[in-house]
Amino acid sequence: TVERTAAAKVYLESFFGKIHSGSAGGAGRGKRRQQLEEDLRKLPVGEEQKGVMRKEWAEGERGRLRARREKISASDFETLKIIGHGAFGMVKLVREKSTGTPYAMKMLRKRDMLVRRQEMHVRAERDLLADVVGSSEWIVRLVYAFQDDEFLYFVMEFMAGGDLLGLLIRKDIFEEEFARYYAAEMVLCIEEAHRHGVCHRDVKPDNFLFDSQGHIRLSDFGLATDFHWAHDSTYYDDLRQATITSVTSGAAGASTGASAGGVLVWRQRHRKQVAYSVVGTQNYTAPEVLKGVGYGKGCDWWSLGVIVFEMLFGYPPFCSKSRQNTKVKIINWRQTLRFPSKPAVSVAAVDFISSLCCDKEDRLGCNLAQARSANRLPNVPPEQFSDARQIKEHPWFAGIDWAAMEQGRGRPPFVPELADAVDTTHFEEVTEEAVYKFWKEANEGYDGQEEDEEVLQLRKRLAFVGFSFRGEEVCRCGVGVRWWLLSVRCPKLKGLKRKDRTKLSEDNFAGSPSRPATASS
What protein family does this chain belong to (predicted)? Predict the structure, then answer.
């Protein structure tokens, strides 16, 4: 009863939280209808054709609702190969049986997530990825999310080119132009996450994935936060304890702990967008994170500086034989950040890294107040300001055509060689036996014996209520409606390549601030 009550509270407060923020289903449909009307006003067609488009859109919305009600399971996919693993799960290359489309399926073990109090992280990852579907070209696309008795599943687009870490291992050191191009794409990835209110907190080479054309996208939001109460571990701990206390004391109607005043009180108490938990991969972690003094999205820009250093010199600037020594080096970065004389890099590159690997008050993308007071950014309203603006304007990026890159017209210096759509050349092969052995070692000491097994089984069934997501219909909604509207006029347009889609959309939607969502090839 206690666990069911706690799960119901989490679900209901999350649901009403989405209504409060305008991201619930009804509100989402309203926004999509508003976007439809804005796009229709820009189309050079008559009212009769617009009426046809509105009917098509309405039918698409009904189909979207029907699709959301259809259950999906692991049996709907054929496993081809294991392409990655971690402490809580593994990633498989799968093929959807009904369509033949290859996807990457991330599987997380519920037991490990619950025993190690990680449910808020997986909930945050699901919510954040679902929120950006259809509106982001720089974040790996979530297609489905579902669960069974033992696992949580994220089905995502398959990024066949592997990750940036693999390319670093193969090339060792990047030429400066090569590094500059991918640093620019990483800026756009991080900017996209920040634009959606997300601090990634684990920016590292492993989490930048290449598509088949050589463009990169940001992945793995398992440690990300949007500073929302629903993604705060303390909230869940307090809620469960409050529920247990109220039941065991016989005061079920009383308000205690996190339930006192409900979600609005929690929001008020935690509304300042500063995090304190120590997360991320040590080599790339900002000093303010390690010190636990409170940090914001600027910690992601520090991580970018470390990655640029690694691309240019072949190793992270604060690497050491032990995690503790690495931590000491990062905290004392003034004494430990040193640039080798070889290979030779430009003064601008050194200055760029130094402008990111520094105190958060001085870091590019963080010192916005100083930039405004110095009249360097005089006419930009705060709500329209991107924290990446300062970074894009750094001299090291002088040759970057940001507009072209944002529209997908950049020419990557690396294009992965792929035999077919399911080529896994750029991924390390892993056996299932090796994965289970790794899980056992990684979770040793977290066997959950302190928690009643019956309660744990109940939590596995109830802790992730509302987790399911189905995103394949999103191409008819939101920003993606631009391309859909064009394809309604001429169905053959659906087969156009990415660069041609972009050019056509620019011609038909001149002045539109958003580019069309495109599918990864």
Answer: Belongs to the protein kinase superfamily. STE Ser/Thr protein kinase family. COT1 subfamily.
**134's torsion region: left (phi>0), alpha (psi -120 to 50) or beta?**
left
Which value, to the nearest 10 degrees, does the dihedral of the CA atoms of residues 289, 295, 300, 302 take?
A: -60
pLDDT at 115: 83
Residue type, 133: V
Cβ(77)–Cβ(103) below 8 Å: yes
* Of 26-30, 92-96, 499-503, the least confident: 499-503
Condensed to tens digits (0 to 9), the pLDDT of residues 75-109 reads 999 999 999 888 778 899 999 999 999 999 999 98
Question: How many beta carbons lie within 10 A of that of residue 314, not counting itself?
Answer: 14
The pTM for the full model equals: 0.74
**CB–CB of 224/204 below 8 Å?**
no
Helix (H, G, I), strand (E, B) or coil at 22: coil
Helix (H, G, I), strand (E, B) or coil at 136: coil
Name the range with the highest mean pLDDT among 30-34, 86-90, 328-332, 382-386.
328-332
CB 87 within 8 A of CB 204: no
DSSP state of 80: E
DSSP-based three-state secondary structure for 456: helix
User: What is the residue whose two structure tokens read 């072209």?
Assistant: 404
Q: What domains appear along the chain, each with residue ranges and CATH number?
A: 43-70+479-521 (no CATH), 74-160+421-467 (3.30.200.20), 164-220+273-406 (1.10.510.10)
Catalytic residues: 202
97 is in an annotated binding site: no
